């Protein structure tokens, strides 16, 4: 087994304002590029599963198989277990693990999946090598990550430019790469994967409900999450600057013409048989 290595700080933490976003996620809205490759009997590893809503969907899609959700943060796994129990799923379990050093033998899983994780790790190429190692020959390695610099919105609210600049600085100071989406293909090739299908996928937030939800969770996250603490503790922003960014989010959310698109890179890689 490879030795564990110190990884990046997880920028967001697991405050309620962060989990409000994660628990909205489904296999359909976050892993559509993978779904056509799933078969009912498959054994799946979901890395960085967070509160486990995507994990639970994957378990429903492999009713004769099994899904293991792993995350480096033990606390959020309690919520993931509760999600699975609440949905009556018997073919899913959870464990603490670091993607850089997975405690599974070679060739264990049919599918190894990571959604919004590689942008937060210290060594994404090593992580992908490890994902490849535990995948069976002929199996799939699937990853999807946002690309912050490629996010776009309307109307122009100057404080949101400050948000993007601040977020990117805080994420990089923690050892992550917020513009991961565009790099996934390169990271996969550097990890030795040769059969790589690279695509892009989006989330769009524009209805009154979507704008209220998306702007509200970022307005709150900017003031009270681990990300907010890292921003001030690291000298990236003052509390007044955070309040201004938070208010910019609320201003955007109130705009009836508001439209926000989140671009993600996606890779679906087949391990050579
Ligand atoms: C943005 S959340 C994504 C959660 C879930 N996949 C989703 O999309 O809803 C990233 C998750 O990856 C976990 N994580 C960060 N670094 C990790 C690492 N090195 N190994 C395993 N999990 C990690 C974090 O604790 C967090 O729960």
Automatic annotation (TrEMBL):
<feature type="domain" description="Methyltransferase">
    <location>
        <begin position="39"/>
        <end position="154"/>
    </location>
</feature>
<dbReference type="Pfam" id="PF13847">
    <property type="entry name" value="Methyltransf_31"/>
</dbReference>
<keyword id="KW-0489">Methyltransferase</keyword>
<dbReference type="InterPro" id="IPR029063">
    <property type="entry name" value="SAM-dependent_MTases_sf"/>
</dbReference>
<keyword id="KW-0808">Transferase</keyword>
<dbReference type="InterPro" id="IPR025714">
    <property type="entry name" value="Methyltranfer_dom"/>
</dbReference>
<protein>
    <submittedName>
        <fullName>SAM-dependent methyltransferase</fullName>
    </submittedName>
</protein>
<dbReference type="GO" id="GO:0032259">
    <property type="term" value="P:methylation"/>
</dbReference>
<dbReference type="GO" id="GO:0008168">
    <property type="term" value="F:methyltransferase activity"/>
</dbReference>
